[in-house]
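Request: Could I get any protein with tokenized structure?
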Amino acid sequence: QVQLVESGGGTVLAGGSLRLSCTSSLNTFGVYTMAWFRQVDGNEREFVAGITQSGTTFYRSSVKGRFTVSRDNANKAVFLQMHDLKPEDTAVYYCGADRGASLSRLGFMSWKVVNYWGKGTLVTVSS
């Protein structure tokens, strides 16, 4: 079974920073589009940031300029560097892998197309 494992979550004050990591066991990691999603209880899992196999990045509007997504294919990992965190960023963050190309076609990704998920890491931002 494919495994994705997130780490790096924690509790920070508004304005602080965190760096999330996601490591995978995908044999062909380099051909997958990797993305970060977040979810608050009672809400739908929403797209945060993603990066294609060629390195093109996409972000939801509310995190542009604050978050940076990157990947390290040699280590089969994807990262999310978060700066100037806000209470509204509080959520469980998940990484997901997609064999398709919806991100490059649409500019965002629906949770419905993700092939593999990690179990999530909690980010709490207090004011």
User: Anything to note?
Assistant: The chain is about 5% helix and 45% strand. The first strand starts at residue 4 and ends at 7. The helical segments are 102-106.
